[in-house]
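Suppose you are handed only these lines of text.
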Amino acid sequence: MTMTMTMITTTTLTPDSATTPTTPTTSTSPRIAIIGAGPGGLTCARILQRAGVDVTVYERDASPDARDQGGTLDMQTATGQVALAAAGLLERFMAIGRPEGQDERALDKTGAVLEERIAAPGDTAKPEIDRADLRRLLLDSLAPGTIRYGAALDHATPMGAGRHELAFRDGATATVDLLVGADGAWSRVRPLVSPVQPFYEGVMFVEVRLANVDEDHPAIAALVGRGSMFALSDGKGLIAQRQARGAIRVYVAFRGPTDWAARAGVDLADPDAVRAALLGMFGDWAPGLRAILVECDNLFIDRPIYALPVPHRWATRAGVTLLGDAAHLMSPFSGLGTNTAMLDGADLARTIIDAPDLRAALATYEATMLPRAAANAAVAHEGLGAIFANAADNMREHMAASHPA
Ligand SMILES: Cc1cc2nc3c(=O)[nH]c(=O)nc-3n(C[C@H](O)[C@H](O)[C@H](O)COP(=O)(O)OP(=O)(O)OC[C@H]3O[C@@H](n4cnc5c(N)ncnc54)[C@H](O)[C@@H]3O)c2cc1C
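From them, the structure of the protein bound to flavin-adenine dinucleotide can be written out as follows.
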């Protein structure tokens, strides 16, 4: 069944065909709750809303700008761009995306360039966009009031017939016919379908930032170029990405425990101590690369890399499903986390709109989403393992594999 704005007021998408009559009525539009206003949840909400389906997004952040949204990511032709097109946002994305951000270079610790790819003019295979700009694009496409900010889900309880009662940390509750967990790595919805928790991949990213690079850090700006620079050797890396508005974000990557700093006697709240520790760790790297650690802002943020086991599957449950990182958290080494989350959101919305009832929609969606997620997550897991085993050589292979001829 294809639903339109008119149809939702005159006929129904039934909450659960097994338990609810399918006769058209005027008041049984399912109450759909998406937990999490990340790229996956927002894409789903946007496509549902465009088709006239009521949806509410519950987001734990107090406001859209409550926290830094992270670095830059690429939107790929076969995944993120498909989702943006389904959301009617591809043209707007192309207007603000950075095709030149597709440039990539791989270096070793001496600073030697091992491999370099310059995006050809007109190449829009995977333009970059800052996460904050992507989120803004999606947020601005939703009707006012779609998102409830400051609504952190604590837990959800099955009520029968596919319905769930949501309990929020501030004491509020809501009952819904469809619960979509788009709430990321540490999903509060996931326990309803699966007991599995993310595991630590054994690789730590320490995020550092540089602002106004062309004026204030010209040598680093030249080193990174217009896109991404991967300097990898000895199972360690400096992964730098240019962002919009003259910024560069760098992930200082190394194998180690999540409490690496404590074990090294370093107070993470003391920037000088962290800087010195990282400079020690990269002591035999080229001065031009070490300059990143010398010149970066006084802000060092641990980002341990977690993933869900591959494959992560579950049997379809009435009235609840997952998308994005909640379903298939993977390391960044496939470059597909956000892309896959958005494609999940688009697929789920489409099946909700087209299927005769919610149970059928979830079964159809999960039959597509779960195998795709497993394939992408396997690439991410293997990519991380290969890169951090023998970093420089394997980075070249990884780049070649990500750019098939
Ligand atoms: C260092 C790093 C670099 C990456 N680079 C890339 C890249 O280049 N390309 C790419 O495609 N992917 C990349 N990823 C992966 C990408 O960040 C994720 O896959 C993507 O953000 C997943 O989107 P999502 O919508 O599923 O979840 P999220 O983006 O995590 O959004 C979840 C939302 O849910 C909210 N939330 C959480 N818990 C609750 C709760 N209890 N109640 C209410 N709201 C809640 C959160 O506040 C958040 O807004 C990277 C990841 C990391 C760690």
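What can we learn from it? DSSP finds 14 helices and 17 strands in the chain. Residues 344 and 369 are 6 Å apart (CA to CA).
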